[in-house]
Amino acid sequence: MKNKNHLTKDINKKIDFTVAVPTYNGETSLPGLLEKLKQQINTEDINWEIIIIDNNSNDNTAIIIQDYQNKWKHTFPLKYFLEPKQGAAYARQRAIDEAKSELIGFLDDDNYPVSNWVEEAYKFAIKYPQAGAFTSQIHPKWEIEPPENFQPLAPFLAITERGNLPLLYKPQTKLLPPSAGFVVRRQAWLEGVPKKSILIGRITGNMLAGEDLEIFSYIQKLGWEIWYNPEMETYHQIPQWRLQKEYLLPFFRGIGLSRYVTRTINIQPWVKPLAFVAYMLNDLKKILLHLCKYRFKVKTELVAACEMQLFVGSFFSPFYLWKHGYFKSQF
């Protein structure tokens, strides 16, 4: 009876921390992630929850989560929500709407946290109250070893190993981290992130990326800090197919095509025409230098080909976004 009363008390307490897992067709990866979350340590004084945001999956994701819920015996609840609008931005917004805490930690279904991830995330939020969002140290878990010269591309696959000390991303550096394994304060999100973002994330037939950088840019614009917390470690499961040219070329093209949005969020409207010209000239310079350096290898050498797609996509980004109606919500 004593244990039962203790459990009831914990459930009725204010939720301190939410782990939100947006997923699309995650039937093979979700079980591994849930096992990692079940093994979290030193959370006795943290009242937390797990919410799964099923982003309109067409596999057995819902069935798998229901099976876990039927067998769940932990003090922290496991909840499931279906978000029918396709795109990571919609799934994350749904997580913000459904979470019961001020702190929401996002984990992709292929990012497996170490056993003290929740503990370290909660401690960091208390220690750095001006941090509107902060991200994990993310190590790769390659299914196969990447090419020897792949290192310049690794950060674009959300590999973030920036040392073992906390790092503040200063606005003047124009550098922001990937969003895998990040924690956000509800207040910062509600104050800064619009209900309808310009970039929604990769969906079938569209590799346009950058929705994570858009989120962080809005939060940083309001004066909230963005941090890297190395104590929050996760391992990104990277399958073989994500190292194939057929995947990587559209992937880097999509990153480039989204860049005009993330580049200009924090720029005053009257400065944007000047910034537009400056970015175009800089991108053109990068393309020409890349061609001079690699010549015909830009079509055959993987890293060179991916970088060229990034530079060309960045050059055409404002025209692509305008043509495809991504700015309609702003005008």
Identify the notable features of this structure and list them briefly.
331 residues; alpha/beta; Spore Coat Polysaccharide Biosynthesis Protein SpsA, Chain A; 9-stranded mixed β-sheet; 42% helix; disordered N terminus
Low-confidence stretches: 1-9
CATH class of the largest domain: Alpha Beta
Cα-atom radius of gyration: 21 Å
Largest sheet composition: 9 strands, mixed
Q: Shape from CA axes?
A: globular
Structural class: alpha/beta
CATH superfamily of the largest domain: Spore Coat Polysaccharide Biosynthesis Protein SpsA, Chain A
At the third CATH level, what is the topology name of the largest domain? Spore Coat Polysaccharide Biosynthesis Protein SpsA, Chain A
How many strand units?
A: 9
Number of helices: 12
| Tally of domains | 2
Overall helicity: 40-55%
Distance between the termini: 61 Å
Q: Mean pLDDT, as a whole number? A: 92
Strand content: 15-25%
For the record, the CATH architecture of the largest domain stands as Alpha-Beta Complex
Topology order in helix (H) and strand (E) letters? HEHEHEHEEHEEEHHEHHHHH
